[in-house]
Design brief:
Layout lengths: L1 E2 L2 E2 L6 E2 H7 L7 E4 L6 E7 L2 E4 L2 E2 L5 E2 L4 E5 L4 E2 L2 E8 L8 E2 L3 E2 L4 E8 L5 E8 L5 E2 L4 E9 L5 H11 L4 E4 L1 H6 L1 H9 L3 E4 L12 H19 L5 E2 L8 H9 L3 E3 L13 H11 L4 E6 L6 H16 L3 E3 L4
Parallel strand pairs: 1-9, 4-10, 12-21, 17-18, 17-22, 17-23, 18-19, 19-20, 20-21
Antiparallel strand pairs: 1-2, 3-8, 4-5, 6-7, 6-9, 11-14, 13-16, 14-15
Helix pairs in contact: 2-8, 5-6, 7-8
């Protein structure tokens, strides 16, 4: 009998599998390979077919002398591919805590050719390259005010800022914002940046996760409801942070804004001392911590013109953090 073109003798009927072994013929199934790496995804994707007298037959079939046995091996194939968009992560993300001014990272966009089964990326065309986070360049500095709004100080601070054509960041406490919503709107309408400073000004790093969430979520929601714009920043009272605080802020879409210049105006030194401390510690990209709430801020208000003029005399441009 002939087995795949090879002649063998067969005295009595025998299983097709035995006949193939005697003829040293091993049917080979076709492989399915990944489009990218070439690794085998399925070793039996296209099974081999054995024919007896031109018809497909099972290996258990008994064949006789005079039968013609043929083998058609399976074909090796490569998986199909799909096209799809992909977000390209920046190499350098924002730091968890921003004590100085940073430009946020921006994800890039690509089109990927992806293996339909393996999920492997075969090829990527970059449509828009990702942009890494970086410190804001140049002689820039930001002023920020905590613990307001306060009807005694906030309007005076806003007036001075407007007089000198300067904008600042106001880190408002939730219960204060609810008490003086007109001041929150005045801050926003004046082109300044609003920052979530928690609902009650607690040590966030000493609270349970659920309490941290409530302290952060509540003021952010109120600011958005009142102004139509969600805040981009959260400042933890006393600078108290831990992994829970950072993760909670990020989950609510808030970056954690701290500071790098602290004249300790909270203790109410005179205006000259406050201004001199700010100017002595100022550096490119710094965020200055001041207060328009939390008590009598007469000295801080009095120091503000000198701070603005002194910084400008040193070549600084006063900016707000980039959202």
């Amino acid at each position: 009998m002939l087995v795949d073109g090879r002649s063998i003798s067969l005295r009595k009927p025998a299983p097709l599998s035995l006949v193939l072994r005697r003829a040293h013929v091993e049917p080979r199934d076709g492989l399915l390979r990944a489009a990218g790496s070439g690794r085998v995804l399925d070793a039996h994707a296209d099974p081999a077919v054995v024919f007896v007298d031109g018809k497909p037959a099972r290996l258990s079939r008994r064949v006789r002398a005079g039968d013609h046995v043929g083998v058609l091996d399976g074909r090796d194939r490569v998986e199909s591919v799909l096209l799809g968009p992909s977000m390209l992560a920046p190499v350098t993300p924002l730091p968890d805590l921003e004590g100085d001014l940073w430009t946020p990272a921006a994800a890039g966009l690509g089109i990927d050719v992806v293996g339909a089964l393996s999920g492997e990326v075969v090829h990527r065309d970059v449509l828009r390259a990702p942009v890494s986070a970086a410190r804001v360049p140049g002689q820039v500095i930001a002023l920020s005010f905590d613990d307001g709004p306060d009807p005694r100080s906030t309007p005076r601070v806003l007036s001075i800022l407007a007089q000198y054509g300067v904008h600042a960041t106001f880190c408002v406490i939730g219960y204060q914002a609810r008490a003086y919503p007109e001041l929150v709107k005045a801050i926003h309408d004046g082109g300044n940046t609003l920052c979530d400073h928690t609902e009650h000004h607690p040590h966030l790093d000493q609270l349970a996760p659920a309490a941290v969430d409530g302290e952060i979520a509540s003021p952010a929601a109120f600011i958005q409801q009142l102004t139509g714009a969600a805040p981009a920043f959260m400042r933890p009272p006393y600078g108290g942070v831990n992994a829970t605080v950072i993760a909670t802020a990020h989950r609510h879409g808030l970056r954690v804004l701290e500071w790098s210049v602290d004249p300790e105006d909270f203790d109410k030194p005179n205006a000259l001392v406050i201004a001199s401390r700010v100017l002595a510690a100022a550096h490119p990209g710094a965020v200055v911590l001041l207060h328009d709430g939390g008590g009598d801020r007469t000295n801080t208000v009095a120091a503000l013109p000198g701070i603005i003029l002194g910084l400008r005399a040193r070549g600084y441009t006063i900016v707000t953090p980039t959202a």
